[in-house]
Amino acid sequence: MKTLEQFSQEINKCVLCGTCRSVCPTFGVVQREPASARGKVALC
After folding, report:
1. Residue 5: what pLDDT?
2. Quick one: pLDDT at residue 39?
3. Please, which residues have CB within 8 angstroms of residue 24's CB and are 6 or more apart in sequence?
4. Where are the alpha helices (DSSP H) in the chain?
5. 6-44, pLDDT tens digit by residue?
6. Cα separation, 15 vs 2, whole angstroms
7. Integer Cα distance of 3 and 32 in angstroms
8. Which of 31, 7, 6 lies closest to 21 in space, CA to CA?
9. Is the pTM of this model over 0.70?
10. Where are the domains of the chain?
């Protein structure tokens, strides 16, 4: 199981390109940026 620090390191690798939106099931349903991984990272 990953630690909080390991998750934090992974999150910080995000370059906010938006490529993840095409495979994000939540974004596919609601079509709103805050529902995508990029939107969630922006909240951090």
Report:
1. 92
2. 85
3. 35, 36, 37
4. 4-12, 25-30, 37-43
5. 988 888 888 888 898 899 899 999 999 998 888 888 776
6. 21
7. 29
8. 31
9. no
10. 8-43
